[in-house]
């Protein structure tokens, strides 16, 4: 039993990798090296690039996916944006995420991140949960998310990843 406890402690205390994307203006820490992809997504305002930085462990982890997603909306869409407009964009992100996985919203909290509007929410879906933080930074949407199986809900790595996300200034 002692050997098991020692090996478990080593896994949970592992050093995570810093991932810095200067072109996407963020830093986050992942349990291992993430993969970066870009997808074109059709939206009401036209086709957008969805930049995804994702790590999907094959085994030995409490979670199935760790990811940061950034999508940039046309600047003119946010030229006269007020709090209500930003809230409606974030509502769309929450509702879209729930619909995409045919899930149920567990909670949805309005948050501020570095002064920017955001949402922190949890979705229950078949077999697990998705924890998501969505931040609207001017005309860019940043989404951090962790997907876990039902029996691994509320594990420490969820908050560790979500709390590792930081915006960086690049010019």
Model description:
By secondary structure, the chain is α+β, with helices and mostly antiparallel strands. Helix content is 22%, strand content 47%. It has three helices and ten strands. A hairpin with a 4-residue loop joins strand 1 (17-21) and strand 2 (26-30). The protein is globular.
In short:
The protein is built from three helices and ten strands; from the N terminus they run αβββββαββββαβ. It is of the alpha+beta class and 171 residues long.
Element layout with pairings:
Blueprint: H1 2-12, E1 17-21, E2 26-30, E3 35-43, E4 46-55, E5 63-72, H2 83-100, E6 104-113, E7 116-125, E8 128-137, E9 140-149, H3 156-164, E10 166-167
Unreliable segments of 5+ consecutive residues: 1-12
Overall shape: globular
Q: How much helicity do the residues have? A: 10-25%
Mean pLDDT: 90
Structural class: alpha+beta
> With helices defined by DSSP (H or I, 4 residues minimum), what is the helix count?
3
Order of helices and strands: HEEEEEHEEEEHE
Multimer state: single chain
Radius of gyration: 17 Å
Strand order across the largest sheet? 3-4-5-9-8-7-6
Please summarize the sheet with the most strands. Answer: 7 strands, antiparallel
How much β-strand is present in the residues? over 45%
What's the N-to-C terminus distance? 53 Å
Count of DSSP E strands?
A: 10
């Amino acid at each position: 039993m002692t050997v098991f406890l020692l090996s478990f402690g080593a896994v949970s205390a592992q050093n995570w990798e810093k991932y810095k994307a200067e072109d996407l203006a963020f830093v986050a820490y992942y349990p291992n090296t993430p993969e970066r992809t870009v997808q074109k997504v059709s939206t009401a305002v036209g086709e957008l690039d969805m930049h995804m930085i994702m790590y999907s462990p094959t085994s030995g982890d409490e979670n199935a996916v760790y990811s940061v997603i950034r999508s940039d909306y046309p600047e003119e869409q946010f030229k006269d944006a007020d709090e209500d407009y930003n809230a409606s964009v974030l509502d769309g992100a929450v509702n879209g995420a729930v619909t995409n996985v045919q899930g149920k919203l567990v909670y949805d909290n309005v948050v501020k991140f570095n002064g920017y509007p955001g949402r922190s929410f949890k979705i229950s879906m078949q077999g697990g949960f998705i924890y998501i933080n969505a931040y609207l930074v001017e005309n860019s949407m940043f989404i951090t998310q962790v997907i876990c199986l039902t029996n691994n809900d509320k594990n420490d790595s969820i908050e560790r990843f979500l709390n590792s996300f930081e915006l960086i200034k690049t010019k």
